[in-house]
Amino acid sequence: MEINTSETEASEQWDYVLVADLRTQRNPRQVHQQQQFLEELKTKGFYYKVMEDQEKMFFGIRADSRLFDLYCTLLAEPEGPVPRVELAKPTLILATTRIRIVHFILSSKMAVADTFQDLVKDGVFEAMFPLHKGEEDLKKKWAQWGNMFQEQPLDDIRDYFGEKVALYFAWLCWYTRMLVPAAVVGLIIFLSGFSLFDASQISKEICEAHNIYMCPRGDGSRRYQPLSETCTFAKLTHLFDNEGTVVFAIFMAGWATVFLEIWKRKRAHVVLHWDLYGWDEDQEEMALELINCPDYQLPLHQHSYVRSTIILIVSLLMICLLIGMAHALVVYRVLAVALFNSAFPKKQVTTAVVVTGALVQYVTILIMTKINKYVALKLCDFEKPRTFSERESKFTVKFFTLQFFAHFSSLIYIAFILGRINGHPGKSVRLLGVWKLEECHLSGCMMDLFLQMAIIMGLKQTLSNCMEYLGPWLAHKCRSMRAKLGGTAQGPVLRHWQQNYLLNPVNTFSLFDEFMEMMIQYGFTTIFVAAFPLAPLLAFFSNLVEIRLDAIKMVRLQRRLVPRKAKDIGTWLQVLEIIGVLAVIANGMVIAFTSEFIPRMLYKYRYGPCRQGAHAAVDCLTGYINYTLPVFYTKDFQDPVEKEGSENVTECRYRDYGNAQDHNFPEQSWVLLAIRLAFLILFEHVALCIKLIAAWFVPDIPQSVKNKVLEKKDQRLREKMRTRSTDV
């Protein structure tokens, strides 16, 4: 059945398809709303065609060419190079522009209801989507696993999905390439520890410390563990906690800056190639509003201190909740120690607590992500942004802030709080006066941080990618199988519409979610990289899969994304710059307060055998373990249960600094604290200076791009001069 179609329009391609359930035809109110909506589209210059199968009604929508002529007249800006597929029709507007204009009008307020989404909520319609058309080339040379190492066809992506999607893949491709040097250096730092795997003086002393006993850890443990039992973990810790860690942390600070600066240059080349330097997002949105409604009133910029105060308070409350979730994880780990003491061998309790804690955190992150998105959306709606682009920018800032605390709160706790407020064996700090607080691994807190990073990154890179692909693939297969049971559509047009309908739905946040996933990964790759130098390597392999996975999803498994015009990645660039600064601060604090680097250097040059000069026959770290583990006399235990089995042990050791008599901090602990603070200040200043120098040394926009822009401006002015001379 065809309604309101002419011979010329019926032969042309349809821009959009609306879908409704056939059962709506039994409801007179819904039928009236459908007809009213379609009639309003008709008054705006649209044609439509109605087709149906056994279960659904499909409404093909096509806009009159006058709408697009008006668009070009209002903007009067070149759209850029015409796609190769349309060279035969130079006057034909880009397909991505057609879809963008039609989508804007369909999503705008109508007389029948506020928006199309309101009609969806009322059950009048079910979905709307642009059609996949001409994607065969992208399927062959892009959306295949076999093309994993091939160049991204950015021009083809732009011609089909629009500039915003193309810029996402351009950025992701560049980010993946830049991960190569970071991954290589991180791997070298990690493998360099293997060369000292058995040669480290500290590891030797730990492995030979059969007569040094560590004090019991936790309420369920009454065993005095020989320090030599941590020999393997001590050697493993040296793989990522060595002198190279400082060099790598400084390298990553410079790397993050160079990555962003060169990306700005690459973006400038891409934008020049697409002829988008003269394009303005606000002007485009105003033009679309005028096309949709000539009586459109321009919304002005506004600011409300009351709204801002409420948003700030709610944001702070959410951040407190997220920090509270991290503390809940602490409570879990404390209780898990008590539970696992009866289920696991004593040597494996700590490892089991760390692993399960990371799993619990991963599940918590998945849950809080949905809550954070809901809260961020509500805050954006409450703030009443002027345009869609402004709303997206504000949402990005709010959502990323909440996601940052959701992902990194527990890591901050492990890196800087875990094991530092526990007291000493004779006087332990207890949760609610009952359970002992969790302590660091016997080989140091860097092992806890390393394991937490490895598990979270491993889960995010493997499980997330698997679910990201398998979820849409299985959903598409199930929908297709149900459709086959219902019968095959008659006619190629209806069959094509059905095939697009059976693909997985997309929404406004489909591309946003991909960006957010990469931002969180970038945070893991840079912020605590001093504790996990293999992070860039894992991110590199993950991105190779991610690029192809996103391509397959967009072309084969999902409905066509609505093309959006853009000349940069927007607020995400500021997010990347903030992460770079946070990375400098966090890595400096990890090296200063979590790593053993500063205590080793202090002992080596102030308290060790080399304090008056190096000796060839003596390692400068000889005696380090005995120096850094204070003594606790077992007779001072206040809990009688902990004295069981201690007949042959008169003293034990624990990780901290304290006098054997009163367990107060000795002089060297204050010297160590002062040196740690001095190192932190020096490290951050050096790293930030490197970032500033790199940012100054590498211009954001290449001179060749600036010169081409100048030449175009000069050419345009000369043409106007010639036109004026001819008229005279």
From TrEMBL:
<protein>
    <recommendedName>
        <fullName>Anoctamin</fullName>
    </recommendedName>
</protein>
<dbReference type="InterPro" id="IPR049452">
    <property type="entry name" value="Anoctamin_TM"/>
</dbReference>
<dbReference type="InterPro" id="IPR032394">
    <property type="entry name" value="Anoct_dimer"/>
</dbReference>
<dbReference type="Pfam" id="PF16178">
    <property type="entry name" value="Anoct_dimer"/>
</dbReference>
<keyword id="KW-0472">Membrane</keyword>
<feature type="transmembrane region" description="Helical">
    <location>
        <begin position="310"/>
        <end position="329"/>
    </location>
</feature>
<feature type="transmembrane region" description="Helical">
    <location>
        <begin position="522"/>
        <end position="541"/>
    </location>
</feature>
<feature type="transmembrane region" description="Helical">
    <location>
        <begin position="349"/>
        <end position="368"/>
    </location>
</feature>
<dbReference type="InterPro" id="IPR007632">
    <property type="entry name" value="Anoctamin"/>
</dbReference>
<feature type="transmembrane region" description="Helical">
    <location>
        <begin position="245"/>
        <end position="263"/>
    </location>
</feature>
<feature type="domain" description="Anoctamin transmembrane">
    <location>
        <begin position="157"/>
        <end position="710"/>
    </location>
</feature>
<feature type="transmembrane region" description="Helical">
    <location>
        <begin position="399"/>
        <end position="421"/>
    </location>
</feature>
<feature type="transmembrane region" description="Helical">
    <location>
        <begin position="572"/>
        <end position="594"/>
    </location>
</feature>
<dbReference type="Pfam" id="PF04547">
    <property type="entry name" value="Anoctamin"/>
</dbReference>
<keyword id="KW-1003">Cell membrane</keyword>
<feature type="domain" description="Anoctamin dimerisation">
    <location>
        <begin position="89"/>
        <end position="154"/>
    </location>
</feature>
<keyword id="KW-0325">Glycoprotein</keyword>
<keyword id="KW-0812">Transmembrane</keyword>
<feature type="transmembrane region" description="Helical">
    <location>
        <begin position="165"/>
        <end position="191"/>
    </location>
</feature>
<keyword id="KW-1133">Transmembrane helix</keyword>
<comment type="similarity">
    <text>Belongs to the anoctamin family.</text>
</comment>
